[in-house]
Amino acid sequence: MYTQSFDTQTNAKVERANSDSREDAFLARIRRDEKIEPQDWMPDAYKKTLVRQISQHAHSEVVGMLPEGGWITRAPSLKRKEILLAKVQDEGGHGLYLYSAAETLGVTRDELVDALHSGKAKYSSIFNYETKTWADIGIIGWLVDGAAIMNQVPLCRCSYGPYARAMIRICKEESFHQRQGFDIVHALCKGAAAQKAMAQESLNRWWWPTLMMFGPHDSDSTHSGQAAEYGIKRLSNDELRQKFVDVTVAQAEFLGLTIPDPALVWNAERGHYDFGSIDWDEFWKVVNGEGPCNESRMQDRVSAFENGRWVREAASAHATKRAERALAAVAAKAPVTTHDPVAA
Ligand code: 3HC
User: Fold this and answer.
1) Which of 6, 196, 212, 252 would disulfide-bridge 283, Cβ 3.0–4.6 Å?
2) Ligand 1 pocket check: which of 51, 52, 53, 158 to mutate, most ligand atoms within 8 Å of Cβ?
């Protein structure tokens, strides 16, 4: 009895020592800026934080199709409809790359989608606001995609290979999205007074929710410390938010629009803009399901998923048939391909 418990304790110590040294080696790879690939050993906490962040990101892309999707038929010209259609389709593609990146960590697409539909998984707060006017589509492209780029460019250098590689393509596409939004707002600002007023009214509604996209202040951010240690987050929530404000002020000035923040002022000493306080109560309400559109977004997502079930089933039956046909063709050719010229 004594020997058995002694052995168990010794084994546990050896396992702990092995695991500590593997973790040290892993962290050393991160510090050397090496990419971690799916087949590599990784700590459970690394895997967990990646699955959480990548899947939330994927859900955000897919839910993010909804506020703009409703404007495709109402866009003011054929050209604008085509551009918006392509943009919304791109967002769906981003969701797919990201779900695939998450799947390399051993979770299934069904598990991820279930987590979204059951309300367990989060998605970006920004997509729970209403798109009331055409100007909102411009403002979303300019500000929301602009904020997404600011946050996502550093993720192209994140330590996990499949996520970093997905982000490179996503960021290229997001920059087109940002330009199409800016172009819409620019056209409105050059138009009639009522069009410019529409752009200003939209900016007034979207400015603060856009700043919230970057997440809570660093002091309230649960995951930032570990995500930075693991080379996932390269810049903090507050650093990214500040960079976004700094670049966007000049763009608003160029458009002749006023950012709705009386506290916004250039601080020469810091070399940055100072800006007003964010309403964190509103942020947490929206994150926790009480935003203006949380309920309808989820209803729309779930019904799109259910209505698309037959398409997925048909596509998978077709893929199975093709694979069976390909196997049968290989088997039919087998005597020829296994012919041994030396023996012949
Ligand atoms: N909306 C909803 N939840 C948010 C949030 C937001 N804007 N910001 C933070 N949160 C949540 C976090 O998920 C976390 O909740 P959890 O513990 O249940 O997961 C909690 O608030 C605390 O925040 P942290 O700062 O600790 O969280 P992170 O370290 O994960 O930082 C983040 C949040 C900056 C959003 C980070 O996850 C990230 O960079 N994610 C990748 C990018 C992304 O998902 N962007 C979403 C927008 S995608 C998009 O905009 C599509 C484009 O086409 C426009």
Assistant:
1) 212
2) 53
